[in-house]
Protein 1
Amino acid sequence: MEKYLKIIYDAYYGYAQYLLNEMLYPSWKNYFWWLIGLSLLVWTLEILFPWRKRGGILRKDFWMDTFYMFFNYFLFSLIAYNAISMVAVEAFNDFLGLFGVTNLVALEIGSWPQWAQFLTLFLVADFIQWNVHRLLHRSPLLWEFHKVHHSVEEMGFAAHLRFHWMETILYKTAQYVPLAMIGFGLEDFFILHMFTTAIGHLNHANIRLTYGPFKYILNNPIMHTWHHAKTLPEGSHGVNYGITLSLWDYLFGTAYIPHEGRDEPLGFPGMEHFPTKLWDQLRYIPTRTKTPSDTSAPPRKAALTPFTPAKGPEKL
Ligand SMILES: [Zn+2]
Ligand SMILES: [Zn+2]
């Protein structure tokens, strides 16, 4: 027990130190300042080349989403996630130790060329995220949490990071074992992390970007607008689940872009009853799941392939 208390103390102390250092000492490998720089860049593009013409440079919920950006990128880790995850990892390792398992690494890719490591990590992580995102739409309970992200009514870069803190726990937990099996965590790859952040910002930005033929590989604002559309194709739980890559949606038949959708209403049916204030969303814990008729999650379209959650390495 003492071991775990020490882990919790070290986690808080270590993360607070890390965050303070990030804020006080800008450098080329600094998440805090890169997030600010990227955000300012995409915001400038939105102001100079707006896709949807709206008066003013501030859209609805701009400041709330700006807070969400820092909350989900840094503050939630400081408040809870870092300590919880360190304890969970230690407990998980102790549990494995009961069965004599001391090393999870099944495929040592550390000796591969750098680009191959990048690509493997990127593809594995993005595919897991695509599956988690799909699960967030299919499970009535998880959909209640995911509604926070879908409560966005006007797109803008910062909407990227408006999501319930439970999603951080779900995404990171789902990725932990498969990534541990190939010998490293996401934190090892700063450039990759910044690349996915930039694509995420652009997906939600008020800019008309298509990437030409690369749209079949990379997610983009037009495709992601349809993910946020209030009206879904009949019988579907959702479309365009891609995070950074659009590839999985094309491969598994969930891509849907009937037209550019610039003025498509965003949100979900019944959103007028969903909390709109930041504090209410942060402390929103669904106690009951709604009936399928008011979750916009009617029976699945036959054309969609059956979903298999990524339970473990054998699925990858
Ligand atoms: Zn979604
Ligand atoms: Zn989104």
Protein 2
Amino acid sequence: MPQALADIVAEAKLAGRALIEFGQHLFNPTVRLGVTGLSRSGKTVFITALVHGLTQGGRFPVFEPLATGRIARARLAPQPDDAVPRFDYEGNLRALTQERRWPQSTDRISELRLLIDYQSQRGVARTLTIDIVDYPGEWLLDLPLLGKTYQQWSAESLALSAHGPRAQIAAPWRDYLATLDPSGPEDEQAALRAAALFTAYLKACRDERYAMSLLPPGRFLMPGDLAGSPALTFSPLQWPEPASQALQQSSQPGSQPSPPAGSLAAMMRRRFEAYKDVVVRPFFQDHFARLDRQIILVDALAAFNAGPDAVRDLEGALAAVLECFRMGRKTWASALFRPRVDRILFAATKADHLHHTSHERLEAILARMVERATARASAAGAPVDVVALSAVRATREAKVRRGRDDLPCIIGVPAAGEVVGGEVFDGLTEAAMFPGDLPADPNQVFGPLPSFRGLTTAAAQDADFRFLRLRPPQLAEVDGVASLPHIRLDRALQFLLGDRMP
Ligand SMILES: Nc1nc2c(ncn2[C@@H]2O[C@H](COP(=O)(O)OP(=O)(O)O)[C@@H](O)[C@H]2O)c(=O)[nH]1
Ligand SMILES: [Mg+2]
């Protein structure tokens, strides 16, 4: 089917479903809440804590419907989508509360339905249905590929890999590309080798020393069922200069110049398009386009550990995320159908690694990052807010005397295997930590490079920030129910759901 026609058919399907869902929502108000973030940003812990707090009456003073006693009860119910795995709430909660370990990491989509019985402001009994959709942020960062030709994507990926720490990591892959002729005959072995080197480069960028964020295509990092298939066996190619310029000029979206039939470039392009068809479009249609609200979890502390390059990269990723919501409105918008996300929250997770005096600073830095990203992405088309939170707080605070000063520090149990000053932690011993003070002026983080020292360029003991992995906290039980301490989880809830329980 020609692309334009396929798009029309897809859009008609979406519009049809949007109408049906709209009808259902009239009788049965539903919010589809997307929870995303890169791998290990804290999605699983966030959803587990949120559901636990709502169903077990957590301490959420800022979440108005709960704080004022309007919520009668919240309970789990069977989810609407039969083909999507269920979020393993019970297993994750057991890990956190009984085994005192963080839940197993997953890299696929999952879903959970929550029903909240509440009283409206006027005292009428109502029920709000919340469908929580947990999906990898890596999938979201694939959406911009839909608007790019293979040549554009090749040029952009190569440009990105030419600077900062990426240049060194990408060298083996780039050196290999330099030996390939895009207009030469197609060659499976060359494709395999280029894809393997490209994948190795993307994977190395995710190492904690670099903590890069913007690394599409997402399935190269988490292939799942598609591992080894042609849709994942491609790589950007490098065109010789004059040809590259000619291609750039003529490659307006929709008028993709075709590389010669049977060439290596034609083969790569076909697979790039297959990736969009098999992976990206279905994700957009089946999941992304149906969300009402979106929270994007950001592990800013991992970027601080790594250094200023990682912070910049994160900012680039936030711009790409915002672009998805904006693009959703422009590119696919028709009179019938628009992506529905009408509130976007960026949340810096794991704020319990910082003394509370730095929580505002973390929030300010994230806000500054989103602001700059918004400028680059020319507005998201929906209200955006930021918060620094900890879904499960694993630390407490204390002052420690150092010479004449009282230093604010945090106390927690570093995870087994974490090392500080030559000492290896066993996962049982408590320690007081000074992870480093975030700058009071957020602009300082974005100063000319290198604005601070991180693992990318310095040894661990010389880095300005050192946020260790911690064990989950020992929990207090109230009436036989473990209560999970958190930081500002209620503020996130108020922004995401407060207005939907009028
Ligand atoms: N201290 C602390 N660590 C957290 C918190 N949330 C997540 N983490 C850490 O981040 C890791 C990844 O979290 P997870 O929810 O599995 O991330 P996901 O891959 O986005 O689902 C966990 O194993 C914890 O080590 C938090 O609120 N506080
Ligand atoms: Mg997860």
Protein 3
Amino acid sequence: MVEDVCAWARHESPTDDAAAVDGMMDLLVAGLDGDPVTIERIPGRDGLGGSVILRAGPATSEKPALVLSHLDTVHPIGTAASDLPVRVEGDRLYGPGVYDMKGGAYLALQGFLEVARRGTAKRPMVFLFTPDEEIGSPTTRALIEHLGRDAAAVLVTEPARDGGKIVTCRKGVGRFDVHVEGRPAHSGSRHPDGRNAIYEAARQISAIEAMTDYSRGITTTVGLIKGGTAMNTIPQHCRFSIDLRVETAADGEELSAKILALAPQKPDFRVTVTGGMNRPPFERTPEVAALFDTASALASEIGFTLVETERTGGGSDGNFTAGLGVPTLDGLGIDGDGAHTLAEYGLVSSLGPRAMLAARLLETV
Ligand SMILES: [Zn+2]
């Protein structure tokens, strides 16, 4: 398994490189030689890679179990050759996307194939591999919801949190883009004529950051900004993006409305906001709790303890299926740390037990 995960990590697949992501899907499919699964490939669109759907298990009309993994990563091509070489150090397997989430996708696939070969699936099994989770799944959300709506349960192989914990609730995520338009002018000779778009954006950003309310679990972050054309020109344009996280659907509606209603604070500016809630909150329903209890009991049989995390601020594709009310369990991937950083690693010792847990879930749930 370690060799295979290394090979997957070496095949870099940043979301925005469709050919690289498709190549990763090829590598996945090439590894399925002779396994009792049907393979469906869905071509990518809008400049992104395609998806792969594997189906196995009994051909009944029962609701299937759905496994969700994404094979894109946040790391640009060349990361493995420079800052994050694929390597094993003790129990740690380092490499781009090992933890988020090629290690998890790989181990769940091993569990899935094992159950398919043994013919012991509890119900039909569907495994969806997507190309665009790291940018909010713009081209696969409909597919995820389509497959999720019919599923009896959804298992998501995002990384396990601190010490192998499972995720049973996640914040909802909103994404917004703001365009501030002012009036350009020479910064020396015509300063009073200018309307500085960056300055107006700064006022807007203060207001946006002030919407953060930790007591309600609401956070707003302006994480990207771009503006101006030259040091000695009063800038006409400034653009920035807002990341919103909320615990409840009601807060998502309230904060989205506030952000979309942003208006200029000074005259002669135009402020345009686009965007909205991207992922609904993943709330811990009684069905989710029951699914966790089943997983926890199976983990004890295998020999490890499954613990739930506190609610995590990170969204995932699990939010889409949980948002439809389908019992969803997330964080079933590899244990490790350093997601989205150059110190990303997975723990080799978590591969076996967690592959076994994926298999047992598919035999039980
Ligand atoms: Zn991920």
Protein 4
Amino acid sequence: MKTRTCDVAIIGAGSAGLSARSTALAAGAKVLLIDHGPVGTTCARVGCMPSKLLLAAAHAAHSVQNAHRFGVGVLGGIEVDGAAVMARVRRERDRFVATVLKTTEFLGEDEMLRGSARFDRPMQLIVDCKDDRIHVEARTIIIATGSSSRIVKPLENVPQRVLTNETIFELQTLPRSLAVLGAGPLGLELAQGMARLGVKVVLFDQADKLGGLRDPATLEAARKIFGEALDLRLKTEILSAVETDSGVQLHWRDANGVEHRQTFEYVLAAAGRTPNLAKLGLEKSGLTLDEHGVPRFDPATLQCGDNAVFISGDADANRSVLHEASSEGRIAGANAASYPKVESSPRMTLLAITFSDPNIAAVGMSYSQAQAANTLIGEASYDDQGRAKVFLQNTGLIRIYGDKNGLLLGAEMIGPAVEHSAHLLAWCVQQKLKASEVLRFPFYHPTFEEGLRTALRDLCKKVGSLHRSEHDVIVLGPAS
Ligand SMILES: Cc1cc2nc3c(=O)[nH]c(=O)nc-3n(C[C@H](O)[C@H](O)[C@H](O)COP(=O)(O)OP(=O)(O)OC[C@H]3O[C@@H](n4cnc5c(N)ncnc54)[C@H](O)[C@@H]3O)c2cc1C
């Protein structure tokens, strides 16, 4: 068996692994990247980008369907060409993937092994390549193996009819009907996208949750908004799935205990993601694992215990979004290269966005943390907001959490284009600004961001720090 030695071995050439590689290389380390493929990153290949391409088509269809509400007629009605929609998704997706592949396609065997890695013993890996089995001895190892869709038990009987994010974008045309299991951010985005393109969609979740929201008020707003727009079945239990000639028959029990059966062409598994750790031989790694089998690690250094092993991206099941995967890759790459010198890095303020319409976003401290810390809540509804009314998008709610001095700590929001307000607020939370300080920044009129200003003013009122001039704007200003 051949043996390779290196300073830093990185398992996984996804967003976390690639960013770890460039950071470790820049620090002068000899780096070996290992990936069994398909390469191209989850984000570009089967995640962020193809899902947003599908949503872009869906929102275009929705705009046309709603044009009559502005007095704009569409002659001949709307027609969705499913094959053309899916072809564009793949064509543009392939362009994003091609850009990523440029970073690895010319790497020789001394820089990248194309095979599956697992621990043989602490600090030693076995990599099963196509024609070879290679031992890798590394000074430090970074685990950046990503995550995969969780397939709930009843779906194990119907593999031919189960779609995941790995397969849904390969459909040659849109399905006639789709059951989406899991109403978290990924399930909600794809359910709404498919429904707006004319697919008969039912969105299920065993909990009463939607879009990752945790604040009861935003959650209630979301249930109302999406309950009107989608066939939404929360608090349901999927009892069985049986393959039929035309698809898959799902049998479920609803929130009232009533049982139902319905046949769908496909079922999309969107009920959570599991870190790709099961095949890594972690039992031989010498690492301490938590109750879910994830190595225990320090989020500030990404080091696993006192070992020369680091973990980053979706593999650590913490902050599973793209910008965090890249950031964790940088932290892990820098520490792996400088090991045994390991430095803590301040982490970014949490930011999570669901690109549904309306958008959903969470910033910083969660609702339960806010409750535990006795925070005050500034609130604003979009129901009567100027810009939102202009565009017939006047629905949603912002809730901002602040301490007794108005220091911004977190927020949840659902509303038109709140992806932008969520960014602004995340930056302010990270800068440790108070609501009253943010109100000194310009807010253009009429924008959706004026909804953020209204919630900030409400927080200031509760804190008792709203200035006289701000009161005047509230009284005199237009609906904002
Ligand atoms: C449908 C969908 C939509 C999403 N939308 C968004 C979004 O809009 N915004 C956002 O911020 N995030 C989004 N995400 C999340 C985001 O895509 C992930 O957080 C991010 O891609 C994770 O990157 P990673 O490097 O950890 O994993 P990956 O990119 O999956 O990389 C892991 C790599 O490890 C390799 N590997 C695994 N095991 C082994 C092994 N044993 N040996 C060798 N190689 C191995 C794999 O082949 C893979 O290349 C979305 C995810 C999905 C699924």
